[in-house]
Design a protein that fits this description.
Elements (H helix, E strand, L loop, with lengths): L5 H12 L4 E13 L3 E7 L10 E8 L8 E8 L3 E8 L6 E14 L3 E3 L2 E4 L7 E3 L1 H10 L3 E2 L5 H14 L8 E10 L4 E3 L27 E6 L10 E5 L5 E4 L3 E4 L2
Antiparallel strand pairs: 1-6, 2-5, 3-6, 4-5, 7-8, 8-16, 9-15, 10-16, 11-12, 11-13, 13-14
Length: 257
């Protein structure tokens, strides 16, 4: 496949050169048969990308929804114009006759990590400055994302470890990240920005601050310490959303298409 869509390519490159991850998605129909439960195939993006994607997610299904076949899909190799997959039939341990199979895929190009269906990334991991929650939120929105909501312990570990390994601390002994979730000091509950319950754990010792005295302490932050730091004084804490934390580098999230 030759990339001749010059206007599209220029637009794509401009996104990659910014701090935004480039996300794409689509589907590709292939005609396939197999005498065994597993078969390899090549899936074409059918679009021009400026480089090999950093991440691709894909699923396979019969193009005819009335068919009973169910498939698992494993990505074996990611290339610039396509990716190689292994398709496995899982509703029964046999192959299948000639049939059209649709592969639905999504990809992203950029610095970051993927957790479930989210891309997590820093617009600039070395940009550490004073920032309140509104400023942090605007920073993510301006870069095509939003503040991160931590759903559970597994996601907390991914966010904390990725941040710890990615932030350019220099001589700074800690860095804060504003979260999208909020804390209610009266009810001692954490709520994600979508209204669902959020993760209530891994607090800095002594937090959360709750009760009527701290009714304005509804903002949530994550205190990150550099690699090699062994103290327990790190993790989540609540404070006023209008507070300019002295050392923030903002982590953002966006949905993988």
């Amino acid at each position: 496949m030759k990339c001749i869509w010059f206007v599209l390519l220029v637009e794509v490159i401009s996104v990659v050169d910014s701090h935004r991850p480039l996300t794409n998605g689509g589907n590709y129909e292939l005609s396939s048969f197999s005498t065994k439960a597993k078969s390899m195939a090549e899936v074409i993006y059918m679009m021009c990308l400026p480089k090999v994607p950093d991440y691709v997610n894909a699923t396979a299904r019969p193009s005819n929804p009335s068919l009973p076949h169910k498939f698992n899909l494993t990505i074996l190799e990611i290339k610039k114009l396509s990716f190689i997959v292994e398709i496995e039939r899982v509703d029964q341990a046999t192959g299948w006759d000639w049939m059209p199979i649709t592969v639905d895929w999504s990809s992203y190009i950029g610095n970051g990590t993927v957790y479930r269906n989210l891309i997590l990334w820093f617009p600039d991991a070395a940009d550490i400055r004073g920032m309140n929650r509104n400023t942090a939120s605007k920073s993510c929105i301006d870069n095509g994302g939003r503040l991160v909501d931590i759903v559970d312990k597994a996601m907390y570990d991914v966010v904390y470890n990725y941040s710890r390994q990615t932030i350019v601390f220099g001589s700074i002994p800690w860095v804060d990240i504003w979260l999208g979730s909020s804390y209610n000091p009266a009810t001692d509950t954490v709520t994600q920005s979508n209204g669902k319950p959020g993760y209530h754990g891994d607090w800095i010792p002594g937090y959360p601050w709750r009760g009527s005295r701290y009714e304005t302490y509804t903002g949530l932050l994550l205190d990150i310490k550099p690699p090699g730091y062994t103290s327990t004084h790190h993790g989540m804490f609540n404070y006023r959303p209008t507070w300019d934390s002295a050392a923030v580098t903002q982590l953002c999230s966006t949905n993988l298409i």
